[in-house]
Design a protein that fits this description.
The protein is an alpha/beta fold. The chain has one domain: Rossmann fold (3-Layer(aba) Sandwich), CATH 3.40.50. The strands form two sheets. The protein has a seven-stranded parallel β-sheet, sandwiched between helices. Helix 1 packs across helix 2. The longest helix has 23 residues. It is globular and about 45 Å long. The protein starts with 7 loop residues before the first strand and ends with a strand.
């Protein structure tokens, strides 16, 4: 475990402002990665909150042909399913919808079930390790990606593959980047909004690393501080 590094918090009033600031920061990091290594890898969250960020990022002037995008986690459903993170990410990030950037899918692999597909997808993701940039959201329960409180895969001291299966109760099965993969990114950011999530984050920073508080993967498990882009509303 790397130990606690106090996050850099970038505060904004609105989610749109926080999303725009995050897009500029990520674009800068992508340029640095391309300059240093010739390519760049970027993991992004699904759900609804990241859409504004992805739209703003897609407007950045970058050599998108050198960028590979992947989700931090994916519901194991067809891409046509409304719950698919891949569908949202492809719609929101224009270089993907226009075919100018590469995408590594964590979605269904032919007729393979979740447990069968996980090793194949993990091998593909592991070839990208360490990721250059990880952007994550956070739930009000402190979950990131599909690492939920109490899940052994959320513990930094539990060996895990690059991708781990997740079966949250009452929700579709998922594949998630592991705690090690998320913590090991060269640069990492959290995008959160509202007072409740800020309180959850502040409590996590003040506490110990724990699989009961998965966001500590980013706040306590990295050698470099995580950047937090937070909006009041």
């Amino acid at each position: 475990m790397a130990g606690l590094k106090a996050p850099f918090v970038h505060s904004q009033v609105t989610l749109a402002e926080a999303s725009a600031a995050l897009a500029e920061a990520v674009a800068d990091q992508l340029r640095l990665s391309i300059s240093a290594r010739g390519t760049a890898t970027l993991a992004v969250p699904g759900g609804t909150t990241p859409a504004l960020f992805l739209q703003a990022l897609g407007e950045q002037d970058l050599d998108w042909a050198r960028v590979t995008v992947l989700p931090t986690d994916e519901r194991y459903v067809p891409v046509a399913d409304p719950q698919s993170n891949e569908a949202m990410i492809r719609r929101a990030l224009r270089p993907l919808s226009e075919g100018r950037a590469a995408y590594l899918s964590l979605g269904p692999q032919g007729g393979l079930g979740l447990e069968e597909a996980a090793p194949r997808i993990a091998a593909a993701v592991a070839r990208l390790s360490p990721l250059d940039i990880v952007v994550s959201g956070m739930g009000a329960d402190s979950h990131i990606a599909s690492l939920f409180p109490g899940n052994a895969a959320a513990a930094l001291d539990v060996p895990a593959d690059a991708v781990v299966p997740a079966r949250p109760p009452g929700l579709p099965p998922r594949l998630s980047l592991s705690a090690g993969m998320l913590a090991g990114a060269r640069w990492a950011a959290l995008l959160i909004s509202g007072a409740e999530k800020r309180r959850v984050l502040d409590a996590a920073v003040a506490g110990e690393a724990s699989r009961d508080v998965p966001v500590t993967v980013l706040t306590h498990g990295r050698t470099e501080p995580v950047h937090v882009f937070w909006s009041e509303s």
